[in-house]
Design goal:
2 copies of one chain form a homodimer. The first copy, chain A, is α/β, with parallel strands linked by helices and about 325 residues long. Chain A is built from 12 helices and 13 strands. Chain A is about 40% helix and about 15% strand. A 7-stranded mixed β-sheet of chain A has the order 2-8-7-6-5-3-4, sandwiched between helices. The longest helix of chain A is centred in the last third of the chain and has 24 residues. The interface between A and B is large, with 51 and 51 residues.
């Protein structure tokens, strides 16, 4: 399996301490405070709740959606729904896309964001993460819709992973996912801080959603996940407050890094920067109980998420201070 | 998608009433009363908890296990882990096995329980549900281990779905799943009444479990599911009490049916019988707000699960009485 953030058990095993600050993911550290699910949610087979789809369509402004057991489920399934194709995956980016489009007979290549427009002409499928994880690069919606139309004209797909799109709603093309050839992935894990649920959504043409549902099979979303997500997706007051607090948190993190001469890019949920010796930085932080995300390959650098509370901010600053003196 | 029990929304839509007694599944109506999961379970990426695997190995007496998002996830994945093979699936039985072994280039045939021994000689893979859903047919462990050895001798697999095996532990071959070629599926949904969790386990040789884990990808089990299942799998007192109460409930259901001349087979969690006009029986019950499981095809008949409370038992008896006079 590919390496990911969030693997705090690995950290604990390797460094033998139990006071970790986990900055290794881009998950909102102040997750949605949902009321406990009903007993029936645990006990019954989880039928899909139409109210959940309605709430998600309203929140994502999508014409139709399929609920999936995390964006990951869709990332794994989409390459199985096409005959072998020429696939361009944006790079550096979330590695699971490239990994799964490399299977099932596809001819997959990695394309830098700046070269994606050119790649559209010579591809059947283009995969973009928008905004990008970890670099924060973005593509404007009108550009995406142009790519989607060009790809669709020859039976192709544009896959847009908007897992970190909640804090940049102006970038979303989910509203256009009724048109064939455009597939938009959304995650409940990051903005809502509900990564434990295993719930995401796919916005796409009805026919593709039916194929995807058939492939994924019945009862993919747990009952408790459905109930908790329904609360979160309907709670516009919490959503507005969270937009503001994440924007402030992201800006604070960016400024803190800059204070120690680290120029980062990213989204309100994480900052990333290219780092000359990322292993050394990661080790420096880990030895102080701060678990960052180390990128060893294409996106060679470091990503940090938002600290949850003031003592965590202080420990991060102290560790950055010591790094800058090292 | 295939038809299943538990689809109470369909029932409500078709019959327009809201006082349903749901007997359409074989799920324990008195599910495990778990304490609420920790906030971290909802919010963090769900790393696999080694303690959950330890508890499951102890409960199932299996040498090693992989947690999966319900038995369904394994049923869908296993046919993808073999080159096209000759596959014998027990019939009538849980239809998802036959459905998925019919894909991916396999040559799948349906084999009655009585002819399975013969089918072993001419198959690469044999799939058995033990005890069977819905008929309750069983195969003795020594017979299964013989089949497994014969299949393994030529690189084959025996897949034993023990989803309803908790109430018949003497039938389980999970303890032998260290030997290559034997794959045992277990479900947390039925006996523990936790179908909403989406959690099951696969016991098999380490190498196969690694292949399966790679195919299924990361974070397949939600955090809350892991915490709730850990409580349930460790709670031997609840497990013993539930063995007794389910045995009594199953016997009571069997006797009640017999009182109205219905000779059924099954397990403590459900009773099934071949019914001449199963659609008429199903309709009779549905018009009285009792949702049974109708089998239209191979297992042509009706399956009923356990009523939860005395008023449900009384309504079931009244409906059976009216059927017998009809």
């Amino acid at each position: 399996m590919l390496e990911h953030g969030g693997n705090l058990r690995d950290a604990a095993r390797r460094y033998g301490r139990d006071d970790w600050i986990d900055l290794s993911t881009g998950i909102n550290p102040h997750g949605y405070p949902a009321a406990a699910p009903s007993p029936a949610a645990w006990h019954r087979l989880p039928e899909p709740d139409p109210a959940l789809i309605d709430a998600a369509c309203a929140y994502y402004r999508a014409p139709q959606l399929l609920s999936v057991a995390g964006t990951q489920a869709a990332i794994q399934a989409l390459p199985r729904l096409r005959a072998p194709s020429r696939v361009a995956v944006s790079s550096p980016s979330y590695a699971e896309h490239a990994h799964h489009w490399n299977l099932h007979g596809h001819a997959r290549r990695l394309v830098p964001y700046a070269a994606l427009d050119e790649a559209v002409a010579s591809s059947d499928v283009v995969v973009v993460v928008n905004p990008n994880n970890p670099t924060g690069e973005t593509v404007a919606p009108d550009v995406l819709l142009d790519w989607s139309a060009r790809l669709h004209a020859r039976g192709g797909w544009l896959v847009v992973d908007e897992a970190f799109g909640d804090t940049a709603p102006h970038l979303s093309v989910a509203a256009h996912a009724g048109q064939p050839g455009l597939i938009v992935l959304r995650s409940v894990g990051k903005f809502f801080g509900l990564a434990g649920l295993r719930l995401g959504f796919v916005a796409a043409h009805e026919r593709l959603l039916t194929q995807l549902a058939d492939l994924l099979g019945p009862w993919t979303i747990s009952g408790p996940a459905q109930e908790v997500a329904l609360q979160a997706l309907r709670d516009t007051r919490w959503q507005h407050a969270t937009q503001a607090s994440l924007a402030a948190g992201g800006e604070r993190l960016s400024q803190l890094l800059l204070k120690y001469d680290i120029a980062s890019s990213g989204t309100p949920l994480f900052r990333w920067w290219p780092q000359v010796r990322p292993e050394a930085f990661h080790e420096h932080m880990a030895s102080r109980g701060i678990w960052c995300r180390l990128f060893r390959e294409a996106a060679r650098g470091v990503r940090v998420g938002l600290p949850a509370i003031e003592p965590e901010w202080r420990r991060l600053e102290q560790a950055l201070h010591e790094w800058s003196k090292g």
